[in-house]
Amino acid sequence: MYEIKAYVREVMAEHVVDALAKVKGVASIAVVSLNEFGHLVGDESPLEKVKMVKLEVDVATETVADEVVDIIVRTSRTRDGHPGDGKVLVSRLVRAVRIEDGAANESALQPTSS
Predict the structure, then answer these.
(1) C-beta neighbour count of 46 within 10 angstroms
(2) Which of 40, 56, 100, 114 is the most exposed place for a label (fewest CB within 10 A)?
(3) How far apart are CA 39 and CA 9, in angstroms?
(4) What is the largest CA-CA distance in the chain?
(5) Lowest mean pLDDT: which of 10-14, 16-20, 37-41, 96-100?
(6) Domain range summary for the chain, segments of one domain joined by +
(7) Number of C-alpha atoms within 13 angstroms, CB side, residue 51?
(8) N- to C-terminal Cα distance for the chain?
(9) Strand partners, 51
């Protein structure tokens, strides 16, 4: 089980979410708006504010995690790639429990039937 966190430019978020929604194995995507402050290596100027979005996706398999990362990188990069396009972090999940029905681990990461 894997958790993918991606920080992408706000203007790219809808495009990324639309692409991820088509991936079998992605049951949901959490989207959080935020402001990121940073500067380039060696840049002594004040921190620059950039409107970003944090996406969080939990998936059951490494194959789906790899597909999700590839889609995020492809769909969130500006044409030539620029500083501030964002980053993707992938972590292993030790345990997952769906509150609704108590489903555990991989089962907790699958879509539910309403």
Answers:
(1) 8
(2) 114
(3) 15
(4) 53
(5) 37-41
(6) 2-37+48-109
(7) 5
(8) 24
(9) 35
- Going by C-beta distance under 8 Å and a sequence separation of 6 or more, which residues neighbour residue 80? none
The two structure tokens encoding residue 36: 């990121």
Strand partners, 3: 58, 91
How is 38-90 classified by DSSP, letter by letter? E--TT--SPPEEEEEEEEEEEES-HHHHHHHHHHHHHHHS-TT--TTSEEEEE
2-37+48-109 belongs to which CATH class? alpha beta
The pLDDT of residue 78: 83
Enumerate residues 6+ apart whose C-beta is below 8 A from 5: 54, 55, 56, 88, 89, 90, 91
pLDDT band, residue 17 (cuts 50/70/90):
very high
